[in-house]
Amino acid sequence: MSARSDEPLIRVKNLNVAFRAKAAKVRAARDVSFEIRKREVVALVGESGSGKSTIGLSLLGLVAPSVATVSGSIRILRKNGKPMEIIGASDWQMQQIRGNDVAMIFQEPMSSLNPIYRIGEQIAESFRVHRRVSHNDALVEALRLLTLLGVPSPEKCLQSYPHQLSGGMRQRALIAMALSEQPALLVADEPTTALDVTIQAQIVDLLKSVQQETGMAILFVTHDLGLVGEIASRALVMYAGEIVEEGSVPQILARPRMPYTKALIASRPHLGEERRKLKAIPGTVPNLTMLPQGCSFHPRCGFAVQGVCDRTAPMLQEVAAGWRVRCHRWREIEEAGA
Amino acid sequence: MTQSPILQVRRLRKYYDITRGLFSRVVGHVHAVEDVSFEVGRQEVLGVAGESGSGKTTIGRSVLGLVQPTGGEIVFDGKNVLEFDKAAMLRFRRSAQIIFQDPYASINPTMTVGQAIAEPLRVQKIASGSDLADRVAQLLADVSLPVDFARRRPSDLSGGQRQRVVIARALAVEPRFVVADEPVSALDVSIQAQIINLLEELKERRSLAMLFISHDLAVLEYLSDRIAVVYLGRLMEIGPSRQVIASPRHPYTEALISAVPDPTGTRKRIILQGDAPSAVAPPSGCVFRTRCRYALRACADEVPTLREVEPGHWKACYRDDVPTNS
Amino acid sequence: MTALLTKPQGWAGLLIVAFVALAVTLAPWIAPFDPTQSSVFFLSPPDSMHWIGTDDLGRDTFSRLLHGGRSSLLVGIGAAIISTGVGVPIGLAAGYIGGRVDLVVRQFIDLFIALPGLVLALIITAVLSPTLLNIVLVLGFVSWPRVARLTRGQALAIRESLFVEAARAVGAGPSWIIYAHIWPNVTRIVAAQFALTVAYSIFTSASLSFLGLGVPPPTPDWGSMVRTGFDFLAVNPMMSLAPCAAVATTVFGFYLIGSSIE
Q1: Where along chain C do its domains lie?
Q2: How far apart are CA B190 and CA B172, in angstroms?
Q3: Comparing C-alpha atoms, which of A175, A205, A169 is closest to residue A188?
Q4: CB of B135 within 8 Å of any CB in chain C?
Q5: Which CATH number does the domain C70-261 belong to among 3.40.30.10, 1.10.3720.10, 1.25.40.10, 3.40.605.10?
Q6: Where on the phi/psi map is residue A224: left (φ > 0), alpha (ψ -120 to 50), or beta?
Q7: What architecture is the B7-315 domain classified under in CATH?
Q8: In chain B, which residues have their Cβ closer than 8 Å to the Cβ of C181?
Q9: Residue-level pLDDT at B21
Q10: What is the Cα C178 distance to its own chain's centre?
Q11: Contact C59/C38 with Cβ under 8 angstroms?
Q12: Helix intervals (H) in A105-183
């Protein structure tokens, strides 16, 4: 079956991930559905406990069946044109697509690197997993990639051990490894959170230019709404394991419809803006084992209405084409001009 | 009528020794803080902006005597902190306190919240017995925590709640000056605002002076009256916060501001090349010159001193014509 | 410490130790015979009169067992008290003060731990006169380095922690920091190590007695009982087996306590 050119690269349908903890089940992802198209940069936004990292890991089949129950469908359109179901795929099948079709970079570069091997070795190793190349050829290729990624003195970098490099350099080395097979999708899980802001700008810039050149799609997982505005065209806002708002980035950042998104924006000071009182979101992120009845955000929501928001859980409703929000009252709130 | 500043830091220096070998030979120094001078007014919030390796945390700790400076003077309320004997140091710790970044590690996990808050009161012999319990209850209320939290352990509390406990501890001795070292960086975004508001409120109510250390420029602009920008242990720029952000006078500040993610896409984008140089062998002359887009040959010769470019606004840079288009 | 009571091994250990302790403490009252009293019924097997039989001099093994336990327990607990009393302060000082004090203490500790305890005890008891007090001292001396090392490690770790720096920031001095922060985090380890030291000391003192370097006769002592019984294993195995089992059980009981606290 040949794929249509507008087929989404990734189609997630009703993804449920429940971690089996001692006391209760932790429902990290609840009925999550979304698509990622080719060449698209989608941001997955949320705080800790929102489930965003779990989604990223699920896309690579990295949620072990021994610790969690995963159900639903994650369908990936492979480079060879054939679709493949990730949930329930065998280890061998997953090994074929990891690195090749989908790659991932993590927040803490140090934990993805082996401290006793030089960087050059590790990058070369990642090539040789998928291709039959000699060790030397792999090193040459590694050098080429690092140069492409704008690493200063790439030869020295190849010769260094991970602890000798700065955070920014390590992250570039990991990006080199992730991109070596030109995957169609890069999942970046908070790749800049541990980095200084000027280095973060470098890495974001790098990712943007790589994305332009290779036409790779990126799923950028972050908690920073500013970063979302910088890099992504579409955003999925997550709260307590669910997608609560989904739409184009300019729309969501300018006039979000979901109270949580609104509150998130209002609770951060923004550089250079008019002096205003910060509106803190009261309460704390809900415990995923003990979710409130009805809308999971209602205990902290300034617009919550008793009898409605605490009773039934809202479904995703369409605001406009490609824009959906999980709120009972979004229309009223919008009309009230809040 | 301006009062004298509560804190004066003059030419603060802190070097850490690098030792090697069996006999710990000193082979070099990490220049963590180099020739930093500033003042904090009696009810002022001075923000210290910088990235990792800038020395901002070392500055905060040195000011409180938690780290022994290698050189320079720290004058608190007119008295030289580095010459304090034990008794004077104890008194100093009643006037100057610190809020640490990590709410998880700064409270002893085997203590209860009540014991943790009571500790400064007991160490300073401010209260005991039932008076102690009353004060702890009052402090918990001040930080908007329920009184029965006193019996709980830190592990039962969330990050935001723990940070409130840390703040309550710092305020227990009723200090006049508080160093806040990245107090919200370890917290979730939706909780940060709660703590920022709390700090603002407490600052007003208790007329506190603060040294607010952070890498987050937006938070600094929001809370501080003035901002000091540090890079590789040196002060690059200092001035009123709104002014420093709106029209930065130092190339590093310009780069720092432009690096903050800007969803509107209006801010000019400057990407600094490479990484910060090593603090063991800092570049000669201006330490920022290796990454500065306006660097001249002369920048390598001598370290630029801080000069006033506008009233109250100082910068350490030879060039007057930069940054451009700010 | 609550783990002691919640874990089943804690309960088991407590029961065993309590039972043994009670038995040997009440020895003078519950022992049916005088442990040093010889009789004509030598090497007799267990019967209604002599529950575990008699030894080569006709002495009642059961009574000897009960009385013999007294010196074993005494030695064990005495040694543990000494090793804790010496090791904990030294460990705390070394860990907290650091610097040269720590350097010196560390060398000592490493030296002692490198030498096998039994060998050390052997050498020392061979030189000193084998009184009960001396044995307690020797075993305490042999065990304190382990306690010191554990305490030192804990003190070191806690000294570097942020909450200790926070305590210093409010004006706390070393005595407060040790009292309020280091000690509460150390008690568990100290208690566990205490129990384990008792176990180790009982075992070692029995071994010493077995080798002839322990408490001299006629005082009944488990180790020497095993030794004497050795020659008569074929004829009257209970002479050796009973004290062996006693040592094993007591040591095991203390071990259970120690490991459940940890």
Answers
A1: 70-261
A2: 26
A3: A175
A4: no
A5: 1.10.3720.10
A6: beta
A7: 3-Layer(aba) Sandwich (3.40)
A8: 108
A9: 76
A10: 27
A11: yes
A12: 109-112, 119-130, 135-148, 154-159, 167-179
Domain coordinates in residue numbering, chain A: 1-101+185-274, 110-182
Element housing C113 (H / E): helix C99-114
Nearest partner of A296 among A316, A312, A282, A280, judged by Cα: A312
Q: What is the ipTM of this complex?
A: 0.86
Is residue B267 within 8 A of residue B257, CB to CB? The reply is yes
A 10 A CB-CB count for C187 gives 15
Confidence class of residue C2 from pLDDT cuts 50, 70 and 90?
low
Cβ atoms of B36 and B77 closer than 8 Å:
no
Q: Are A246 and A235 in contact (CB under 8 A)?
A: yes
DSSP state at residue A98: B
Chains that touch C (3 or more CB pairs under 8 A): B
DSSP conformational letter for C125:
H
Positions of chain A with pLDDT under 70: 1-5, 338
Q: Cα(C260)–Cα(C6) distance, rounded to whole angstroms?
A: 9
Query: Which one, of A217, A209, A230, A219, lies nearest residue A148 by Cα?
Result: A209
Rounded Cα gap, residues A232 and A333, in angstroms:
26
Residues of A whose CB is below 8 A from B190: 47, 263-264, 267, 280-281, 285, 300
Look up tokens 């080429």; give the residue: A144
- pLDDT for residue C6 is more than 80: no
Whole-prediction pTM: 0.84
Residues 262-291 of B with CB under 8 A from C: none
Question: At which residue do the structure tokens 């570069």 appear?
Answer: A109
- A32 DSSP assignment: E
The C-alpha angle with vertex B40 and arms to B35 and B44, in degrees rounded to 5, equals 150
Tell me the CATH number of domain A1-101+185-274, given options 1.10.10.10, 3.40.50.300, 1.25.40.10, 3.30.930.10: 3.40.50.300
State yes or no: pLDDT of C179 exceeds 70.
Answer: yes
Q: Cα separation of A101 and A184, whole Å?
A: 5
For chain C, give the number of residues.
262
Give the C-alpha separation, A232 to A207, whole Å.
11
- Residues A87/A163, Cβ–Cβ less than 8 Å: no
What are the pLDDT digits (tens) for B63-105? 999 999 999 999 999 999 999 999 999 999 999 999 998 888 9
Across the interface, whether the CB atoms of B257 and A267 are under 8 A apart is answered no
The count of residues in chain A is 338
Q: Within chain A, where are the H helices?
A: 52-59, 91-97, 109-112, 119-130, 135-148, 154-159, 167-179, 197-214, 225-231, 249-254, 259-266, 330-335
CB B104 within 8 A of CB B159: yes
Distance (Å) from the alpha carbon of B314 to chain C's nearest alpha carbon: 32
